[in-house]
Amino acid sequence: MSTYFSRMILCFASLFMLWLTAAGAAYAAVGPGNVKVGLDVQSDTLGFKTSGAYRLVEQSTGEEITRLEQGEQWQVRVENGRIMLEGRKGRLGPYAGPVTVSELDLSFNVLSGSGQAVESSSSGQFFVLNGEGELTPFNSVENPHAVSPQKKTALAAGDGLNLVSLINGAASAKYRGSLEFRVENGKLAVVNELNIEDYLRGVVPAEIPPAWPKEALKAQAVAARNYALQRVEVTRGSNYNVVNDQLSQVYRGYDAETQATNEAVEVTRGMVMTSRGSLITAFFHACSGGYTENSEDVWLEQLPYIKGKADPYDKNDKHYNWQVDYTVEQLVAKLRGSGYNLAALEDIEELARTSSGARIKSIAVSGQGSLGEPVRIVISNADKVRHALGLKSSLFNLEKVYDQEGILQGIKIRGSGNGHGLGMSQWGARGMAAQGYNFQDILKYYYTGVDITGDYGRSAIR
Question: Could you tell me the pTM of the whole model?
Answer without folding.
Answer: 0.81
